[in-house]
Amino acid sequence: MPRSSATAPPPLGELLRRYENPGEPLSCEPVTQGLLNRGYRLATTRGAYFLKHHLDAPTADRDTIARQHRATQRLQSLGVPVAPPVQDTAGDTVAVIGGRCYALHPWVDGRHRVGAQLTTAGSRRLGALLGLVHTALERVMEAGQSSGGSGGSREHGRDEHPSADPDETFALIDELLELARTHRPRDTFDVLAEHRLLERRTLLERHAHRRPPPGAAGGWVHGDFHPLNLLYQGAEPAAIVDWDRLGVQPRAEEAVRAAAIFFVRPAGELELAKVRAYARAYRRAAGADSAELAAAVHRVWWERLNDFWILRWRYQLHDRRADPQFPAASALAVWWTREYEAVCEAFAG
């Protein structure tokens, strides 16, 4: 759920006293990217840090955050580019102050890169990186369980993830249509939203029989692998950040979902040549076969066909921060349906 951008400033004095020689604070500037939690670039007399204020309720408790931190520490030892948190003088990585959870990370100088900024070789590196993440997570989370850590249970590997129910989606479309049509002052976004909702209802009526069966959760995943959570230094990935959604899910679906964010063009088409390079590298690195990727393509396509989170934020939660993503995201579902076979071939061929 989205959070208000109005939050109290971080308690820097009390926070920094927990660390050994962090320096005196010079500045603390909000980082603008990100929709759920709050981040700051904290400059001190000894260097720069990324200060994270965990706000997103499902993942903002101390134990959950500490589990994420342990995972990144182990991943770093396996060569995964991450930025594990700084430990305080007591060896803790989560600071709870006034009921709020904070974590201090080293600042990573880098930039975000979308698929249009990646070469074919860069697309391969991206796919290989995500494959490494998945295989390394399997190792570090299993190790955490065997040593008594709170890494979760492999029983979750047998959990099923039901696919979206089209009847529920039809009801949501009707609700969102009413909200879009009555929104005032009416603007071009509302016009596009109404068009896409009507278009999507037609597509769902035509393809409802293709609803996939429940999917089994296949392994540990980052959970939110997209351009704003990956920093580059030059052409090389420097740090994967924001591990709040770490959990057990179908791994190949994360690979497809990530590609649909990295490689979508503004008009809602995927750069299939780059997708192909990315997917082949992912399959090699993760040990995934073509059938697994094809099934994941189908499930993520269905997910996109039934997904209206941006419109729910705007019309139900009155939060417009995701509005700029809507034109490409809404067009992608239509294009993907039309080019379904070509998309499958790019991922699984």
What does this structure look like?
It is a single chain. The protein has 349 residues and is α+β, with helices and mostly antiparallel strands. The protein has two domains: 12-106, Phosphorylase Kinase, domain 1 (2-Layer Sandwich), CATH 3.30.200; 115-348, Aminoglycoside phosphotransferase (APH), C-terminal lobe (Aminoglycoside 3'-phosphotransferase, Chain: A, domain 2). 45% of the residues lie in helices and 15% in strands. It contains eleven helices and eleven strands. The strands form four sheets. It has a five-stranded antiparallel beta sheet with strand order 1-2-3-5-4. Helix 5 packs parallel to helix 10 (326-338) and helix 6 (251-262) packs across helix 8. The chain is globular. Mean pLDDT is 92; it is low at 1-6 and 146-157.
